[in-house]
Amino acid sequence: MHHYVYRIDRPSTGEWYVGIRSSAKAPLEDTGYMGSGKRVKLIDNAELVKTVLVQVQDRDEAARLEHALIGADQVADPICMNEIHGGSKGKLGYVTSDKTKAKIREANLGKPGSHVKHDEATLAKMSASAKADPKRAARLRKLNEDRGPVTDTTRARMSKAAKGKPKTAEHVQKVADAHRGMKRSEEAKANMRAAWARRKKK
Q1: With a threshold of 0.85, does the pTM exceed it?
Q2: DSSP 130-147
């Protein structure tokens, strides 16, 4: 029996899915199998592209890898077709080897869901796909509610990561448009004045 982790992509919408498979056929010969996800099964196979991410020794190892790849952030992503946390039957605490991580990273390189920026047309399709599924939209809202407010520590990390990065004229304009006409509290105004004063001193 062959055990492997695979990825399904739908190029027309940018949607993707990660799953595990145990088959008598070798992974690259198992071309008739195109995923077990509910949303994946509703799509014509002709629209899908399958990639074998990594072959492993047993089903448990495959489940543990799926668990590492598909977490709450991925499930909350509108273009991810996984509806639950990956590897529900796998054992937690498994440490993936650097070699296996490298194989998965290489297989995912350049694909949506791997920090690739989508064009406007793809984003529109993703948005329409999410809105067309009320149950998924409700599940995403619940996930966001469960996360709770962003902590000060997280905000500091986000700020540090964004500092020094060049911004396009389009991005600057969008930010300006979003803030135009916004009413700010006296406390917010005071914070802004203090931040401006600190920047002038540098």
Answers
A1: no
A2: HHT-HHHHHHHHHHHHHH
